[in-house]
């Protein structure tokens, strides 16, 4: 594919490619000063890019507006998702508390209604064939998941929520549940007998097990007991950020790889580095670390962010979000990385990986191929 073909493809997909630059660099998006190499653009254009934690909206008020009445979502609202370069958005949120069953039911039913109303733009990705075909369809894929499994009151509930389209379930959020322990609990005794039964039922149905927020022992138990690949959809490496509970140990990363899983690297500032400034280069260090520790076939993208970024949220909502977490999360004034275009992040990531010396085939694996392989294996029963 030559440069002219790349630009023509970008324009057809809705991206506002505007200006050629010197040395093979050009501006791809109107209103942006960012430039990308032809190689980076081609890689994103041909790859089924999967972001394994990418809510459409972080803002609670925006979410209520769009899911409460899908007609509020217009063609102009769709354009950024089509132009982002992301083929599949895993839109999981954290749920919990006494009303978790109803809360999760509302969340999934809200998205199902939204997808039905806008099926000319979006498609629910819930089978291997839909996953493999979403790029060619021209639509944006939505993968329904939940960042907790507390809504599973019994093993039969796994079947029920599977029927609603849920295809990924994180075993715990940050707190202790009947299933296991979250990452910010004081102690972690691992999976309970009930948790083991939930994992077994998820394996049987073809629902992916996620341990991103789980405590260390609960995380390792999931790898030991699951018969299918276990995912770390969005986390970072504790060796590079030693005191953060949301980062994963080398032991966990090795166990993940031995089970055939994939780890998605987040773009959240305090997860990426304990030091300032925290930049794209710090984030790329996590991709390098996992690739060197267990192989490039076990690392992917789990941004944990929408296309706007946390720092673009209404100030009061961001303040409320921060107040909902323990001090061990280590929020700073800024939450987003420096020097990253969140709305076009696959292009920035591809460019960064090129500069780090990754070959095309490995970049395609990181952008989506690895998670596609693990999801196909998990969903095939």
Question: Would you give an account of this structure?
Answer:
- Strand 8 (145-146), helix 7 (155-163) and strand 9 (168-170) form a beta-alpha-beta unit.
- With 381 residues, this protein is α/β, with parallel strands linked by helices.
- It is globular and about 55 Å long.
- The chain is built from 15 helices and 14 strands.
- Strands 8, 9, 10, 11, 12, 13 and 14 form a 7-stranded parallel sheet that branches. Strands 4-5-7-6 form a 4-stranded parallel sheet, sandwiched between helices.
Q: What's this model, at a glance?
A:
By secondary structure, this protein is an alpha/beta fold. It has helices spanning 3-12, 38-46, 60-68, 75-83, 100-117, 128-137, 155-163, 193-205, 216-225, 250-258, 269-272, 280-294, 315-323, 345-355, 360-379; strands at 19-20, 25-27, 35-37, 50-51, 88-90, 122-124, 140-143, 145-146, 168-170, 208-210, 230-237, 247-248, 263-265, 299-301. Helix 2 crosses helix 14 (345-355) and helix 9 runs parallel beside helix 10.
Low-confidence blocks of residues: 13-23
What shape does the CA trace take?
Answer: globular
- Main β-sheet, in a few words? 7 strands, parallel
Could you spell the SSE succession in H and E letters? HEEEHEHHEHEHEEHEHEHEEHEHHEHHH
The share of residues in extended strands comes to 5-15%
């Amino acid at each position: 594919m030559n440069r002219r073909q790349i630009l023509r493809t970008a324009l057809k997909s809705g991206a506002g490619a505007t200006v050629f630059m010197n040395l093979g660099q050009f501006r791809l998006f109107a209103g942006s000063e960012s430039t990308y190499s032809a190689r980076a653009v081609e890689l994103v254009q041909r790859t089924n890019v999967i972001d394994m934690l990418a809510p459409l909206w972080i803002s609670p008020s925006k979410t209520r507006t769009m899911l409460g009445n899908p007609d509020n979502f217009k063609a102009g609202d769709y354009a950024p998702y089509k132009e982002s370069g992301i083929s599949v958005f895993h839109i999981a949120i954290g749920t919990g508390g006494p009303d978790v069953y109803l809360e999760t039911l509302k969340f999934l039913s809200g998205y199902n209604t939204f997808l039905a109303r806008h099926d000319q733009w979006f498609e629910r990705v819930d089978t291997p064939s839909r996953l493999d075909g979403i790029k060619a369809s021209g639509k944006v894929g939505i993968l329904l998941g939940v960042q907790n499994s507390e809504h599973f009151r019994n093993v039969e509930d796994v079947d029920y929520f599977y029927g609603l389209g849920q295809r990924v379930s994180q075993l715990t959020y940050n707190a202790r549940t009947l299933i296991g322990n979250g990452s910010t609990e004081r102690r972690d005794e691992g999976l309970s007998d009930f948790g083991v039964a939930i994992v077994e039922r998820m394996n049987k149905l073809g629902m992916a097990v996620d341990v991103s927020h789980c405590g260390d022992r609960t995380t390792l138990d999931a790898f030991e007991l699951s018969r299918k690949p276990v995912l770390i959809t969005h986390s970072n490496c504790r060796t590079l950020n030693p005191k953060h509970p949301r980062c994963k140990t080398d032991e966990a990363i090795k166990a993940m790889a031995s089970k055939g899983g994939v780890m998605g690297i987040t773009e959240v500032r305090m997860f990426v580095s304990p030091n300032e400034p925290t930049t794209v280069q710090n984030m790329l260090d996590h991709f390098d670390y996992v690739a060197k520790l267990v192989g490039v076939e076990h690392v992917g993208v789990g941004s944990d962010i929408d296309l706007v970024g946390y720092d673009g949220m209404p100030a009061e909502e961001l303040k409320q979000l921060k107040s909902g977490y323990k001090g061990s999360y280590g929020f700073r004034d800024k939450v987003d990385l420096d020097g990253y275009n969140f709305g076009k992040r696959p292009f920035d990531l591809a460019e960064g990986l090129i500069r780090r010396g990754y070959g095309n085939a490995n970049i395609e694996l990181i952008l989506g191929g690895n998670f596609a392989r693990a999801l196909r294996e998990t969903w095939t029963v």
